Structure prediction request, 212 residues.
Amino acid sequence: MATEDAYTAEPFVPDRGGLSALRKAAANCRGCPLHRDATQTVFGDGSADARFLLVGEQPGDQEDRQGKPFVGPGGRVLQRALPEAGLDPADAYFTNAVKHFKFTQSEPRKRRIHKAPTLREVAACEPWLAAELAVVEPELIVLLGAIAGKAMLGSSFRVTQVRGTVLEEEIHGRPERLVPTVHPSAVLRADDREAAYRGLLADLKVAAQALK
Prediction:
């Protein structure tokens, strides 16, 4: 069990094995307190041969219930946008910076409201993301939102400053190309959803071009 001063998933990450071994081990992760209220660990989904890897913030309500990433409303926006941008979802590996759903709930039967993870919780989950990257070795990483960007590039990351550009950074000792954009759920919260969707689509087209 992680103490408040030592949040980390590191002891739970296996030394060897592919995605199936990681997924099995992650189901028992107790690296931070978020596992206590979540229904289950929501690990990444996709092939170890995926050309590009998409990183979001954390599972939402539907992801927590179904055990798969990007199956809720924001995920449906993403699944629509990928092929429109020229990206094949079959070439993608989908994951989140944090693997457990963090939420607030006023009463047991009331709707569970998403709550952003803290930087400490993001850092605690980082060993899982590092392990996924080491197995998949994607040609490109698409960062979906500020939390994903901070998880990969540090706390100074600002998605509004670099969205829709190709960044080249060293991540866990490996050179990576990254394209930041907003999280697809931001489209649903926008006053002008159509304009927000066009912005997401434009960023994803940059990613598609980078993979050519």
